[in-house]
Structure formats: C-alpha cells, structure tokens
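In the design runs reported in the main text, the only information available to the sequence generator was the tokenized backbone. The following block is the verbatim input for one such run; it is reproduced so that readers can re-run the procedure and compare outputs position by position.
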C-alpha cells in the first residue's frame, strides 16, 4: 500500500470508515462523546466519573435525545488534572476548593 496510487473514492471511503469507528466509540460529529468513551480515555470507572459529575468537578456538555450524558475533551483534561493532583497528595476536597475558588466555579480555557 505504501507507494500504490489510491483509487478516486478511497479518501471518501476512508473518511466514512473513520467516522463509523468514531460513532461506534461513542464520539459524535460535534466532538462530544458518551460516558463509555470518557471511561476509555480517562481510565476511570463509571462510578468515579458519576461521583465527579455529582460533585461538580466535571461537567456534562450535553445529552443525547435518549438522555445519555455527553462530554467534551475538557472533561478528559479535568479528569487527568484531578488524577495528577491526587497523585501529589491533594484530596478531592482540596481539588474542589481549587476548582471553586471563592464559591465560584473556576473556568479553564
């Protein structure tokens, strides 16, 4: 396949295949993904993610028409930050205080 020319429709098929794989993984066209994909990307359990949502440490970006939670890449970044902070000794209470300075949620860009 290395130097072989591709047929005219090969790129379109490749894109459709990639899109199909993304949908099966729970990734939507808008870049949001379901809880299962967040579990895969973060390595955390469904229960831990649910607890972090309940605590307000991560946010749901949207919901599917059937009510499934959808998350963005920001949730993955926050989960990785939470894991790193815990590794260096911060408790969830400390982390929540960091995220909610002065009683207001700290927005990260």
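Verbatim output:
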């Amino acid at each position: 396949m290395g130097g072989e020319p591709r047929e005219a429709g090969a790129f379109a098929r490749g894109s459709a295949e990639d899109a199909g794989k993304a949908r099966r993984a729970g990734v939507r066209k808008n870049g949001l993904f379901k809880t299962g994909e967040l579990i895969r990307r973060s390595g955390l359990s469904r229960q831990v993610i649910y607890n972090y949502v309940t605590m307000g440490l991560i946010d749901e970006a949207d919901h599917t028409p059937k009510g499934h939670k959808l998350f963005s890449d920001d949730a993955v970044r926050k989960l990785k930050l939470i894991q790193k902070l815990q590794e260096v000794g911060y408790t969830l209470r400390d982390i929540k205080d960091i995220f909610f300075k002065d009683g207001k949620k700290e927005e990260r860009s």
